[in-house]
Design a protein that fits this description.
The chain has 11 helices and 8 strands. The protein is α/β, with parallel strands linked by helices. The chain binds adenosine monophosphate.
């Protein structure tokens, strides 16, 4: 059926019966992939894999906020205090920032959302915004809190391109330097142990209900992400 995506929809009514038409239309829709999971579950790492595999851009709301903070924009100024405490930034700010990002031309064939939605109202706002116009796939990366706390203690990220690393599990080729862009690797301020515990608490209360939300809509895959990066990627591949 894959070949159908190369036909123009204008030609399809001439050659396809109704059910195949519907399937072809579904395939030709932009693909939106949502990565759910606690902070440190590996959403960013697996999103980067999907960027390569599917040639779609990764949209991380956390990265967008950090860029705004660095550039000291009005959005960055509004988000700063929430981010430093590990709290969620209010929806009005997140939604405006996200929707203006996904309007950009590089998102026309789809995109990978990392860190959004984080709450049911955000998921509802996204669903209202997108309507039936995209093909949605949701992965939830499943990792226990104990492993998350251990992982985040060693997490470092590139200060320039935001690529994620880990001091022992996923070290860069050259210490302190990003493999992708040569940028400086740093520990995020909100990766301190107390802030991580608060972020996990928020995850369980506000973000975990999203599994039920997307599960009920038949678009959710639960992925065991407690082992290695490679094993998690293999499970995502299977689901794709
Ligand atoms: P992340 O890099 O995804 O862990 O996000 C870092 C911080 O950015 C979070 O702790 C929040 O303060 C903020 N943030 C990122 N995405 C969202 C979102 N979808 N809703 C609210 N706040 C967010």
């Amino acid at each position: 059926m894959k070949v159908l995506s190369f036909l123009t929809l204008a030609l399809l009514p001439l050659v396809l019966p109704g059910s195949l038409m519907a399937e072809a239309q579904e395939i030709s829709k932009p693909q939106v992939i949502i990565m759910l999971g606690a902070p440190g579950a590996g959403k960013g790492t697996q999103a980067l894999y999907l960027v390569e595999k599917l040639s779609l851009p990764q949209i991380s709301t956390g990265d967008l906020f950090r860029e705004n903070l660095k550039a000291n924009t009005p959005v960055g100024q509004k988000a700063k205090s929430y981010m430093e405490k590990g709290e969620l930034v209010p929806d009005s700010i997140v939604l405006e920032m996200l929707f203006s990002r996904i309007e950009r031309p590089d998102c026309k064939d789809g995109y990978i959302l990392d860190g959004f939605p984080r709450t049911i109202p955000q998921a509802e706002a996204l669903s209202k915004y997108l309507g039936e116009s995209v093909q949605l796939l949701v992965f939830s990366l499943e990792v226990s809190d104990a492993i998350i706390i251990e992982r985040i203690a060693g997490r470092i990220v590139c200060n320039t391109c935001a690529a994620p690393y880990h001091k022992t599990v996923l070290p860069p080729k050259k210490e302190g330097e990003c493999d992708r862009c040569g940028g400086k690797l740093i520990q995020r301020k909100d990766d301190s142990e107390q802030v991580v515990k608060d972020r996990l608490d928020i995850y369980h209360k506000q973000s975990e209900p999203l599994k039920e939300y997307y599960g009920a809509r038949g678009t959710l895959f639960l992925i065991d992400a407690a082992t290695s990066k490679e094993k998690t990627t293999a499970l995502i591949d299977q689901a794709l």
